[in-house]
Design brief:
heterodimer, A: alpha+beta, OB fold (Dihydrolipoamide Acetyltransferase, E2P), 20 helices, 39 strands, B: alpha+beta, BirA Bifunctional Protein, domain 2, 2 domains, seven-stranded mixed beta sheet, 12 helices, 9 strands, binds zinc ion, ATP binding (chain B), cytoplasm (chain B)
């Protein structure tokens, strides 16, 4: 909402500069978007008078004018405007002037004729086109005849007024008017507000209710009032009124419409004017629309209505209640008799309708936030009085009420100790009372207890907490002390699950993976890739784009997007992990998805890059598995982890993927992204894993355990063998471990080989075995026996050929 | 006395040869040739039997002295040679210490996560419990219980992704206020909680908007918690996160779930409060919203608002990270460009 600093000063004394005032408003009331003058950035733009006009010899639409700009000689300006007229006072941008958009005006030749400046239209000196009155839309602007030639034009057009753009929060609808803002500043500065609403005695001889009737459902419009003014002379408003409007961001239309907008801006009551003679019936009604009814609104749009819309109707809708009037009953230059309407429309219904019709107007903005119920009739009378003054109308006696609630100021009980209790201040009753008085509230004191009467212009103050806020902002937030809560001691901390998640992040970062954060909303295709379990989709009702339409059911697809982003920028080594939620649904009937914490990793390229001293090792299954094993080990899980080869995951390499099981429970998978999928994502060979972190959290832990380190030397033995190539490490290892005897501590594969010297279909595999007796020095013969037994078992059970 | 002269000769030659030796092998050979069982001293002493008896001990002692001297000289020469050899070896082993060290795998925490962890830790230190809530939230918790009834104009401030008419992507972490209030047993003491998490808004992604970002909600409810406590708490957080020179100021604002509501500004990062383009000349930057919890929020969560009250605040780690590091595009946090991520540790 644009508000003029100078206009405010008509009602309340302000000692601060416009910029200082803006800062003050921010600290006490609402945010300020900007402070500016319409003349900002303009230079050398003066009043000129057209002395003569000649047609340009070589151009049809150009005129050569001689213009008096207060210098010794008139200057010659070539102008293309259709409305140049001898004797008129015009806006002249002299040579060297700056006009709108920082354009510089220079002496020039137009089709061979010298031109020493420019005659300007309003938009050329910075007025937004939406503010320029229709009569000046297509030509240069004529200043008042009494404008002094050679003066700067700004003061004639209100362009030196400082305009403050307020960003009014929903609770401060009262500040959407000069009156409300003036009262607010009066309280802030402890200054008296001199706001007079003049209503002149009507001169008409009729009673309004002889000319019109109204009926309103109080649920739709708790207050609805009409007043007739006859014999108006519809014409452009005087310049002072036009300036008030355009400096409030509103386009002047004609004197009658301008009066309604002026009242809205000045006192905050949105109004409308109908052409009385265009009404099909003189019985107006505020009612719900009937399904299928249609109205053409003043903006020229045809609007189809349904029964949730609220309209004003004669025998059909003539206005959308609280939003905009209809074209059929518009006040135009031929209008003779008018009906002014002022009322209160239901905020929620207004908001719904504005959203549905995509029609957010100055009026709807105010009705949504509420308006002063106590000022409706005064506003209506004020408008009628203005119509007598500005349009020579005869305003008729009385008003017609379609609905009319009894309006009482609100009374709120509060105590000064409560206010201090909430704010942490130590204000005396006297100080608090004085703040309420500054705000214009009535206060009755009874010791610590205060009974506060809030005027209707502060309709948003409803409960004691609202009054606490009034005290806080007028007293000043800067004056409130800084303390820390004094409470019973509480034990702070992360939940065990949050702790596990934080530790997981630290472990994976220590192992070389960088933390990525991706979007949870993704495409339908990516949402359901790499799924650890079957799940229905959770789509948004109205996604903004296909890219963010469905909740993810895996983390890997997001990581692959990240790999692609990096590799497209030639960052080829990409080790990333992500921790976050996936969203599972048992079936379509489940409305709200389960949110399951996952953790996933992706590595493409290599963990460390090539260097002069070190050759990069391209990532492979075993490298990422190593990382995963270290991570899983850090969790101290009690159960046993196994890796089971799978060729059933569509997005994974069928030969290089394993399901990960904790005892019998599937906790995740690991492997190479299917080359086809990698190609789809435009990424190089990439290895990934994804784990169900929630399950890992609930799985039993062994905790940190200590095992005494043996004091006797261990004995190491190697066993090398040839086995069928399909025999897995897991099988061999299991057998060795089971048959290794009491002293076998560990069996680790250290060599796997296929190729020359190894028969087709076979592989050579070798294990390093560690034996140890915690209580004595082991004898070689004991170990020999154990190894011998293992070798026999390997030969018998796995058909191994010991080498 | 030829024998004596022989020995003198052996000594002179021996010392000369030892001195001239250039390596350990020559020295070993010399030792064998001079002092060995078949060495020149032993050989020379073969002639001792031809000497008169009274001369023999003299020569014997002379020979022993000679042995000792030669042995000592050889030993010290050996030390000398070893030292020289070592010196040479060390010289040969000299490297270019300016070449870079080996790469070691090292991941980086996400900058937003770092800020969240820092905030969590600050409040844990002040006795706050950290709680997590659902990202897919019930409309009731996200709006109704936050004192935002249907068709409240403030709902426009938070454009929402709906799953169904009752289920939505939470637009703020504030619903955790209601959830925590409902669960908390006030007979056991005050509620002091922060709740970090992901939130969603129906916004088109651009440099200052992201349809997904983060918030940390905070709430303290007890029998006597004040606006002054809120101010002090926000100051502690600001000082710990950004440094002591950063000031906090409160301004009136509006949130349906707090009354009074405030916006908190902190000293502009760019100009340290002098006023610049970033802060529109004010010297202050808006960083978070806060206020005293609205009685309706307490009531709806089943808490007696006549007895209990307190403050709540919501901070944006994304915004904090942008301000702290001068990141000018919020989307950078979600692109996961390693050149970006690896700058933060
Ligand atoms: Zn600044």
């Amino acid at each position: 909402m644009l508000i003029s600093y100078e206009w405010l000063k008509d009602y309340v004394q302000i000692k601060l500069s416009p910029e200082e005032l803006a800062n003050k408003i921010e600290k006490t009331s609402v945010e300020v978007d900007s402070v500016f003058k319409r003349s900002d950035g303009l230079k050398k733009i003066v009043v000129g008078q057209i002395l003569s006009i000649k047609d340009h010899p070589d151009a049809d639409h150009l005129h050569i004018t001689q213009v008096d700009v207060g210098e010794d000689e008139p200057i010659q300006i070539v102008c293309g405007a259709p409305n140049v007229e001898i004797g008129k006072k015009v806006i002249v941008a002299l040579s060297g002037a700056r006009i709108a958009d920082n354009v510089k005006i220079k002496k020039s030749k137009m089709r061979g004729v010298e031109s020493n400046g420019m005659l300007c239209a309003l938009d050329e000196i910075g007025f937004d086109k939406s503010l320029v009155p229709d009569e000046w839309k297509d030509g240069i602007y004529f200043l008042p005849d009494n404008a002094r030639v050679g003066d700067e034009v700004y003061n004639y057009l209100g362009m030196n007024e400082s305009l403050i753009d307020l960003d009014v929060t929903p609770n401060r609808g009262d500040m959407l008017s000069v009156r409300g803002t003036a009262y607010d500043l009066g309280a802030v500065f402890d200054e008296k507000v001199n706001f007079i609403e003049h209503a002149s005695a009507p001169t008409g001889t009729h009673d309004t209710d002889e000319l019109i009737s109204a009926k309103a459902d109080p649920n739709l419009a708790p207050i609805y009032k009409l007043k007739v003014v006859e014999n108006v002379d519809v014409k452009p408003s005087p310049l002072w009124l036009q300036i008030k409007l355009w400096n409030s961001g509103i386009k002047p239309i004609n004197n009658v419409v301008d009066i309604t907008n002026f009242i809205m801006v000045k006192v905050g009551q949105p109004m409308h004017a109908y052409d009385l003679d265009k009404l099909k019936s003189k019985d107006l009604e505020v009612r719900n629309a009937k399904d299928g009814e249609v109205i053409t609104t003043l903006d020229g749009n045809d609007r189809k209505l349904t029964s949730t819309d609220v309209v004003i109707a004669d025998d059909k809708p003539i206005a959308l209640a609280g939003l905009m009037g209809g074209k059929d009953t518009e006040v135009t230059s031929g209008t003779k008799n008018i009906v002014f309407e002022a009322g209160v429309f239901d905020p929620v219904k207004t908001r719904k309708m504005a959203q549905k019709q995509l029609l957010h107007t100055d009026a709807s903005q105010r009705f949504e936030r509420g308006v002063d119920h106590g000022n409706v009739e005064a506003a209506l009378e004020y408008a009628a009085g203005m119509a007598e003054d500005l349009a020579n109308g005869e305003s008729e006696q009385g008003v017609v009420n379609g609905s009319n609630e009894e309006v009482q100021p609100r009374v709120i009980s509060i105590s000064s100790s409560y206010i201090n209790h909430v704010l942490g201040t130590n204000l005396s009753v006297k100080e608090i009372v004085s703040i309420f008085k500054r705000l214009g509230f009535g206060v009755e004191e009874s010791g610590d207890n205060l009974t506060v009467t809030v005027p209707t212009r502060c309709w948003d103050l409803k409960i004691d907490a609202d009054l606490v806020e009034e005290v806080a902002r007028i007293y000043g937030y800067d004056n409130i002390p800084s303390t820390l809560p004094i409470t019973q001691t509480t034990e702070g901390g992360l939940t065990p699950k949050q702790e596990m998640i934080r530790k997981s992040r630290e472990t994976l970062e220590g192992l070389g993976l960088t933390h990525a954060m991706s979007y949870s909303l993704t495409t339908q295709e990516k949402a359901k890739m790499f799924m650890l379990r079957a799940s229905s989709e959770t789509p948004l009702q109205w996604p903004m784009t296909e890219d963010h339409a469905i909740l993810r059911m895996n983390l890997i697809s997001g990581l692959l997007d990240d790999v692609a982003y990096n590799q497209a920028r030639n960052v080829l080594n990409v080790p990333l992990y992500e921790q976050g939620r996936v969203f599972y649904k048992q079936d379509e009937d489940q409305v709200r998805p389960d949110e399951v914490e996952h953790i996933a990793g992706a590595i493409s390229g290599s963990l460390v890059s090539n260097s002069w001293d070190q050759k990069a090792k391209p990532v492979d299954f075993y490298q990422i598995k190593g990382i995963l094993e270290k991570y899983l080990a850090s969790l101290s899980l009690k159960g046993h982890i196994t890796y089971v080869s799978t060729d059933k995951m569509a997005d994974m390499h069928p030969g290089r993927t394993a399901l990960i099981k904790l005892d019998d429970h599937l906790i995740g998978f690991i492997g190479e992204v299917h080359p086809k999928v990698a190609k789809q994502f435009k990424i190089k060979e990439t290895y990934v894993f994804e784990l169900d972190l929630d399950y890992l959290y609930t799985a039993p832990k062994s905790g940190q355990q200590y095992q005494k380190v043996g004091q006797y030397p261990a004995i190491h033995r190697d066993i090398a063998m040839l086995v069928d190539e399909n025999v897995t490490n897991a099988e061999i290892n299991k057998l060795i471990t089971r048959r290794g005897g009491a002293y076998l501590q560990d069996a680790t594969v250290f060599d796997v080989y296929q190729g020359s010297n190894v028969p087709e279909g076979k592989k050579s595999i070798a294990y390093s075995l560690t034996f140890e007796d915690p209580n004595a020095t082991l004898k070689d013969e004991t170990v020999d026996k154990a190894v011998d037994k293992i070798q026999k078992r390997l030969t018998n059970e796995l058909n191994a050929e010991i080498r | 006395m030829a024998l004596k002269e022989d020995l003198e000769q052996i000594k002179t030659n021996g010392l000369q040869n030892i001195k001239a030796a250039q390596d350990g092998k020559t020295l070993n050979d010399l030792k064998v040739n001079l002092l060995g069982k078949k060495g020149s001293i032993t050989k020379a002493l073969h002639g001792i039997s031809e000497l008169p008896v009274e001369e023999r001990p003299k020569i014997g002692s002379l020979a022993n002295k000679l042995r000792d001297e030669l042995a000592k000289t050889i030993d010290s020469k050996r030390v000398e040679l070893d030292q020289a050899a070592l010196n040479q070896k060390l010289k040969d082993e000299k490297i270019d210490v300016t070449l870079p060290g080996d790469s070691v795998p090292k991941g980086h925490p996400h900058v937003i996560q770092q800020i969240i962890d820092e905030i969590d830790d600050i409040f844990i230190g002040m006795g706050y419990q950290v709680l997590s809530g659902p990202e897919v939230e019930e409309e009731v918790y996200n709006f109704e219980m936050m004192n935002l009834p249907k068709n409240h104009p403030a709902r426009d401030m938070q454009d929402t992704f709906y799953i169904t008419k009752d289920i939505l992507m939470r637009t703020h972490t504030s619903p955790m206020q209601a959830r925590a209030l409902q669960k908390h047993d006030f007979t056991k003491g005050p509620l002091k909680m922060v709740s970090p998490g992901v939130v969603y808004r129906r916004d088109t992604d651009d440099p200052t908007h992201s349809h997904q970002f983060h918030q940390v909600e905070g709430i303290v409810i007890d029998k006597h918690i004040t606006m002054a406590d809120l101010k002090g708490t926000l100051e502690v957080m600001t000082h710990k996160l950004f440094g002591d020179k950063f000031q906090v100021r409160l301004r009136p604002s509006y949130f349906p779930f707090t009354e009074p509501s405030v916006e908190a500004d902190i000293t502009c990062f760019n100009c340290n409060g002098k006023g610049c383009d970033v802060c529109k000349g004010t010297g202050w930057i808006e960083v978070l919203g806060a206020g005293m919890v609205h009685p309706n929020v307490l009531k709806m969560a089943g808490v007696d608002s006549n007895v209990y009250g307190g403050f709540a605040f919501g901070v944006g780690p994304d915004r904090f990270a942008m301000l702290k590091y001068g990141v000018d595009d919020i989307r950078d946090f979600y692109l996961n460009d390693l050149r970006f991520l690896s700058q933060f540790d």
